[in-house]
Amino acid sequence: MHYLAFHFASTHEASELLTDTLSALGADGVQVQDAAEITAILADPKNLSYADDDFINQLDPVVRIVAYFAAFPEGVRVNRDPDQASWTLYDNSEKIIVPLSQLEEQIRVRLQSFSAFLDIGDGYQGCLVVKEEDWAENWKRYYNTLHLTDRLVINPSWLDYQPVPGEIVITLDPGSAFGTGTHETTALCARWLDEKLQPGDHVLDLGCGSGILAIIAARLGAGSVEAIDIDALAVSVAKANCQLNQVAVMVHSGELKDAARPRYDLIVANIIADVIVAIAGDIPSLLAPGGLFIASGIIRDKLPAVEAAAEQAGLSILEKRIQNDWCALLLGKAKGD
User: Fold this and answer.
1) Over the stretch 76-98, which tens digit does the pLDDT of each residue have?
2) Which of 18, 153, 199, 206 is close enough to 269 for a disulfide, judged by CB 3.0 to 4.6 Å?
3) How far apart are CA 216 and CA 225, in angstroms?
């Protein structure tokens, strides 16, 4: 078995109808790249994602849709009754194998009918073969063993690595969660953890993603480590990575207000600037005497806003580091607070 990727050039108005139609026909997955939808998500005040203007300006105005159908020597797997599949669970629909030409004709007929009342764009562009091994494994080629500091090493779970004496190796399977060590924001945090964490410290990783920073803290000798994320998928990935590295970390869903301890010796937040600004006022009360707050995920343009929020919250900037366009701050309680 392999997969066929059916490519479409469409419009924002037609994308939902087209994706529903492809799913009803029997697509195993549908991928949509819609600039209007991405822009709307980024503009939502409740959204925690961030993208700079260059990214937004480079988005393709054409909606690109790719539908994946399973293909076999005898033909392509589709739903026997697409009309019935449109109001039942697609996975429960009866499947049949049809010639590729038959499926393509079904697609063209449906697009032609839609075009009578809706701008569907250029429509069907053709299909390409996607080998099953490429589907499952190619993404792993982009991850290699990474040396963050003289002793901190991040190694993907599918690669063998022989550490030299003194190295601390973190085994990681990033899954769908952020945090592999390759991004500047994660690396900046990891280096400060290596420099500042003292054995026995109580550590909070806020917005833990893959769990990489929480695992590093645990391996560096923290007395306790708590990892929080609002994303249930990230929590699941972080728990799996903690188990993989055999470290005891309390991983759970939530926000800063859901932190379990009253005080922490070190809090690390590799999130985005707007969230750091929003939580800055709550950080000092959660820091133990002499405690540190590592704030990262700050794009350079947002740094002044974070610095102002930190000062207003009674936090002193002990050190600032910048890598490419990303910034991180090491903060502590201001004297007298």
Assistant:
1) 999 988 876 444 444 557 889 99
2) 206
3) 10
